[in-house]
Design a protein that fits this description.
Rossmann fold; five-stranded parallel sheet; alpha/beta; 275 residues
Length: 275
């Protein structure tokens, strides 16, 4: 259903917009022509002089030729034929704009972004199994008001970092390190990572991020890790819900694409040179 809606917008939206624009332009042209003729007739009768000069010539008040309408129809026909073959490649390019793809080599530590969730834990466990590294590091997000209230009531509460550690343990990853942060989000992780890498004297890390955030994360790490000796490779979580090849087929995919593009464009605007 959503796929057909996208088709309909692409097929009829542009020609309809052209047609509406043409109709309004023609209407304004006729109105100006009528005003010009009325003022000229009044001036010829000696009723009043033209209040102001109007550069419009009589030849300009004729209606648009019929070929304009035929052109709109031709554009509609062309869109109906070409839209399916053009639309999907363009949407795939838009999806892969958010995803970074880098070769992964053995590293000292696999660092897991908080916002990669369970998909990131699965990706990190697979990397451990493939021999990339035996150690995994997880960010510990600062306690929110919600966290503190659960603790105040003496209730068991599991934040995102603790949840990822539990998931890693269930996947057989025992060597898990913790990275403290004072601010949430990708920027907060990027600010905490350089100092931690220096303290641990790490030469290389693999940073696991959610697919639709990986391109922006790459830019953030390029900025924050500048001047530090640790080499960083960004690995998108393959089990992420975002599919760059078919994101437009679900509402969740469309939302992730739109939000991801907004954040990436904002990052480009704020940091044109990100290295």
């Amino acid at each position: 259903m959503f796929d057909r809606l996208v088709d309909a917008v692409l097929i009829f939206g542009f020609p309809l917009g052209v047609l509406v624009g043409y109709m309004w332009r023609d209407r304004i042209s006729r109105a100006r022509g009528a005003r010009y003729l009325a003022e000229r007739n009044r001036a010829a009768r000696g009723d009043t002089a033209l209040s102001r000069s109007d550069p419009m010539k009589p030849s300009m008040i004729s209606p648009r030729p019929r070929w304009a309408i035929l052109g709109v129809v031709a554009l509609s026909a062309f869109a109906m034929v070409a839209v399916r073959s053009i639309r999907e490649p363009v949407l795939r390019v838009a999806g892969w704009t958010l995803v970074v793809s880098e070769p992964v080599a053995p590293a000292d530590v696999i660092v897991l972004s908080l916002y990669s969730g369970g998909a990131g834990a699965l990706e990190a466990a697979d990397l451990v199994q493939s021999g990339i590294s035996k150690r995994v590091a997880v960010f510990m997000d600062p306690r929110s008001l919600e966290d503190r209230e659960f603790i105040r009531r003496g209730l068991r509460y599991e934040d995102e970092g603790a949840r990822q550690i539990r998931q890693l343990a269930s996947l057989g990853v025992a060597d898990v390190m913790r990275i403290p942060t004072i601010e949430g989000g990708s920027e907060g992780e990027g600010q905490a990572l350089p100092q931690w890498c220096d303290e641990q004297q790490l030469q290389s890390i693999v940073f696991v991020a959610d697919r639709d955030h990986s391109r922006r994360v790459r830019r953030v790490l390029d900025r924050t890790m500048k001047g530090h000796s640790t080499r960083v490779t960004v690995q998108p979580a393959r089990y992420s819900n975002f599919d760059p090849d078919r994101w437009w087929e679900t509402r969740r995919g469309v939302a992730a694409e739109l939000v991801g593009l907004q954040k990436l464009l904002l990052d480009v605007v704020l940091h044109p040179i990100s290295f």
